[in-house]
Specification:
- By secondary structure, this protein is α+β, with helices and mostly antiparallel strands.
- It has two domains: about 25 residues; about 70 residues, Nuclear Transport Factor 2, Chain: A, CATH 3.10.450.
- It has two helices and four strands; from the N terminus they run H-H-E-E-E-E.
- A four-stranded antiparallel beta sheet has the order 1-2-3-4, covered by helices on one side.
- Strand 2 and strand 3 form a beta hairpin.
- The relative contact order is 0.12.
- The C terminus is likely disordered.
- Keywords: Membrane, Transmembrane, Transmembrane helix.
Amino acid sequence: MIRARPASLRPRWLYWMPLAVVTVCGALWLFRLGWIAAHVDESALLDHYARFYVAETGEGARLSDCVGRPGQGDGVRLVISCTAPDGGKRVYAIGRFGGLLEQIPASGDASKT
């Protein structure tokens, strides 16, 4: 019959392993966010969401239908406005790390949004 080791004989470093794992995971996550912030520029974001607009709108839509401007709100990095061939407008609010925060229903002139 095999007996379990008493708690006093277990290695002390084993108690610190959960903290080490959480620390390493947190560091990797923060490194990833920093990498994204440093390597994704506004022109890449504009190109990505213009392609998204073309795929969403379909026939007649072009990449040149979209314009971008700096965001004004909390956490908004870029606002991209696209004018569809039928006169409709789509506005995309892009977050700090390049994610779509919301698709804003636009009215009026897209250059004023």
